[in-house]
Write a structure and sequence with these properties.
By secondary structure, this protein is an all-beta fold. It has one domain (18-322): Neuraminidase, CATH 2.120.10. It contains no helices and 28 strands. It has strands at residues 23-27, 31-36, 42-46, 49-54, 57-60, 67-73, 79-84, 90-95, 102-103, 122-123, 130-136, 139-145, 153-154, 163-169, 175-181, 185-192, 195-198, 205-210, 216-220, 225-228, 233-235, 243-250, 256-261, 266-272, 275-278, 289-299, 305-311, 314-322. The strands form 7 sheets. The chain has a 4-stranded antiparallel β-sheet, with no helix packed on it. The two termini are 32 Å apart.
Length: 323
C-alpha cells in the first residue's frame, strides 16, 4: 500500500550543515520505511506486514489480520500502526517492544473502515502519547491515547469542520495535522491542551510532522512545502532549480526533509539553516533509484534520514547515513 500525503485531496549530536555532509545510501530491501527513532530503529512495512528494522534486518510484528503497517516508533522501540482484517475493517494497533500487537481502544462508538480518510497518526518519542484518526456518527475525529489506559479521548474539533486527521505528536502533547470542511478545504493545525491553532489563516495547508520544539513542516494545496516555527509560517521557496513540494519530516534542529525536484528530476531535498539543498549529489550510490515514487519519511536528531522510493521497478526502503 502506497501512502498519500493529503488523503482525498488530489492536487492538494547535532547534524553538520547539510551542504558539508555526504551520505552513505543503505538499501533496506523491498519494504517501506515510515519512521525513525533516536536509536536509528525504523518502523514500516515488509512483505505486507508491520515490521521494525533493527540490528540490520526487518523484524515482522506478526500481525493478527490480513496485512498491516507500522507508522510510528518511539525511542524505546514501541510502535503504532494499522491492521486490515481482510474484509472492511481497519484496526488501529499498538506494538509494544518485544510483545504482540493489540487494538488501540478508540473513543466510544469509534471505528475505522476501509475507504475512510485514514492517515498515519503517530507516537511521541517518549512513548506516552499515541494519536490517530477514527470515525463515529458520520464524522472523522482525532483521538489521543496513553498506552496502558483503558480508553482514548477525542480531542474535539472547531466548529464547521467535518474531519480531523492527526499526523504527529511530540512529548509536550502538541498534535499536528489537518482539518477538513466542504467550504474551507484542508486547514493545518497545532493542538495542545484543548486549543487549536491554525497556520496560514487555516486554509489549504496540512502539517505533516512536529519536533520537540513544537515546530512543524508540511505542504499546501499548491504543492509548496513550508515550515512553521510555532508562530509564523514560512514557505520553503524555490532556490535556483530546486523546488520542495512537501516537508515530510524534521528533527529538533529544524532540519526539514521532503520531496521535490531539481527542475527535471525528482529528488530528496533538505531545508537547513535557511538553505535548500539537493541531497542526491551528496549520496554515494544512486544507481537504480527513482525518487518520483516515494519520499523521505523521517530524520533523526543526528541527521540519519529514512524513506522509500523505487529501485529497479519495485518499492525499496532506504537509510541515508551522514558521514
Amino acid at each position: 500500500m502506497k501512502r498519500t500525503l493529503l488523503a482525498g485531496a488530489a492536487g492538494l549530536a547535532c547534524l553538520a550543515p547539510a551542504f558539508a555532509t555526504t551520505y552513505h545510501m543503505v538499501d533496506l530491501g523491498s519494504a517501506e520505511s515510515l519512521a525513525i527513532n533516536a536509536r536509528h530503529q525504523l518502523a514500516g512495512e515488509d512483505n505486507g506486514s508491520a515490521a521494525l528494522y533493527t540490528n540490520g534486518h526487518w523484524v515482522d510484528k506478526h500481525d493478527r489480520h490480513h496485512n498491516s503497517v507500522a507508522y510510528g516508533i518511539d525511542k524505546a522501540g514501541d510502535a503504532t500502526g494499522q491492521e486490515w482484517d481482510g474484509q472492511n475493517g481497519i484496526h488501529v494497533t499498538y506494538y509494544p517492544r518485544g510483545g504482540r500487537g493489540y487494538d488501540v481502544p478508540l473513543p466510544p462508538g469509534g471505528r475505522v473502515r476501509v475507504g475512510d480518510p485514514v492517515q498515519p497518526g503517530g507516537i511521541s518519542p517518549d512513548g506516552t502519547k499515541v494519536v490517530g484518526v477514527y470515525h463515529a456518527a458520520g464524522a472523522g475525529g482525532c483521538f489521543l491515547w496513553t498506552p496502558g489506559d483503558e480508553g482514548s479521548v477525542d480531542i474535539g474539533m472547531p466548529a464547521n469542520y467535518d474531519i480531523c486527521e492527526a499526523d504527529g505528536v511530540n512529548d509536550a502533547g502538541e498534535i499536528v495535522g489537518k482539518l477538513w470542511s466542504e467550504s474551507r478545504g484542508f486547514s493545518g493545525f497545532v493542538y495542545q491542551a484543548g486549543v487549536f491553532t491554525f497556520v496560514a489563516g487555516g486554509t489549504d495547508t496540512a502539517l505533516l510532522a512536529v519536533n520537540a520544539e513544537g515546530h512543524a513542516s508540511g505542504t499546501d494545496s499548491y504543492a509548496q512545502a513550508f515550515f512553521w516555527n510555532g508562530r509564523h509560517l514560512k514557505n520553503i521557496t524555490s532556490s535556483g532549480i530546486l523546488n520542495m513540494h512537501a516537508g515530510t519530516a524534521l528533527n529538533r534542529h529544524d532540519d526539514v526533509v521532503g520531496w521535490g525536484d531539481d527542475g527535471a528530476t525528482a529528488t530528496i531535498l533538505m531545508y537547513s539553516g535557511g538553505t535548500l539543498i539537493d541531497l542526491s549529489p551528496l549520496i554515494d550510490d544512486l544507481s537504480g533509484w527513482d525518487f518520483s515514487q516515494g519520499w523521505p519519511t523521517g530524520i533523526s536528531d543526528d541527521g540519519w534520514i529514512t524513506g522509500f522510493a523505487f529501485r529497479n521497478r519495485s518499492t525499496h526502503a532506504y537509510l541515508l547515513i551522514p558521514r
